Amino acid sequence: MKVKLINDKFLSLLGLCQKAGKMISGSMQCESAVRSGKVHLLIISEEASEATIDEFTHLCTNRNIPLIITGDKDELGSAIGKHSRTLLAVSDPVFKKLLLKKYQEIQHGGDR
Q1: What is the C-alpha to C-alpha distance for residues 3 and 35, in angstroms, rounded to an integer?
Q2: Which of 10, 37, 70, 83 places its Cα 20 to 30 Å from the Cα of 96?
Q3: For the whole model, what pTM was predicted?
Q4: Domains of the chain with CATH codes
């Protein structure tokens, strides 16, 4: 059985980020935002192609932007009230901190 690496609290935080206007979604929009320095955290669906993962890993590594690869496209899209999404970019440092903290808790076995 596969362990779910994101939970409802993490997904709810994504929704709050979207409602606050601090979320960017879509490949072209995320790439532009990363290149312009607006992104504090990038989230990539586990279903993304290897090319997409490689491209955005390179972009984020060169700019010291943390990157999370988790969830499926439908989960990520649903969390922000949209259809399936492969990429989500967080443009706020407070939401970045909250999302990273929650993700790390989940990774270390807490708060499932």
Answers
A1: 33
A2: 83
A3: 0.91
A4: 8-107 (3.30.1330.30)
